[in-house]
Amino acid sequence: MSEAAPALHVTLEGFEGPLDLLLDLARAQKVDIARISILSLVDQYIAVIEGARRVRLEIAADWLVMAAWLAWLKSRLLLPDDPEAEEDAEALAEALADRLRELERMREAAAWLATRPFLGRDVMARGLPETLVIEDRSALAADLPGLLRAYGDVLRRAAARKPYRPRPRRVWTVQDALARLRALVGRAPDWAELSGFLPEAEMDPVERRAALASTLVAGLEMAKTGLAELHQEAPFSPILLRPPRGGMRLGEERGSDAA
Which domain of life does the protein's organism represent (predicted)? Predict the structure, then answer.
């Protein structure tokens, strides 16, 4: 008997072959089990088990189940007919058939799993696991007193907050510069730097540049009307201003305006 495909061969009256084939034929009513000697079947089973000590336990158990089925089927033939018992027997036979089919499916699934790649032998996992630890700190733990204190702090900060008001800048307009130049240009004996006509009040750099620009525009306006003369020696050198020579003086303009 081959261990690769173990089977119990029996020799009975009217049949000779594997036990599982005899059981299938008996279920399909293709063999007359009334002619089968259960005693002879049991004797052959015991002889095989005693003669082959290396038969695996699960194989011997399968053979025993098959022989028990044959004995049960033949007992159904020997007992008198009982409709209720016959129905119970059919239900039991169907349930056992379902179990056998389920067992066959399990064996097929086990065989399929055995052919799948094994982790560590056929399929390798990735390298060492990452040591990155993720900490979830999104949850906030707060109670009612803590929330009230936080709300009070917000209100106190809002009450203590002062709106930002930038310091107003003093703007020296062109009209202011023109009035100052008209008042001071007549006192200049000769050329004087334009920056000397700026207001004497203290100013920051931005205010000083704005005042210088307004004074330059006022000087250009006076030079245009002949009330002053402008001069510059070279590019980016100081701009000079003086009263007009040989032309209309500021006092003459005022006299003509008064006339």
Answer: Bacteria
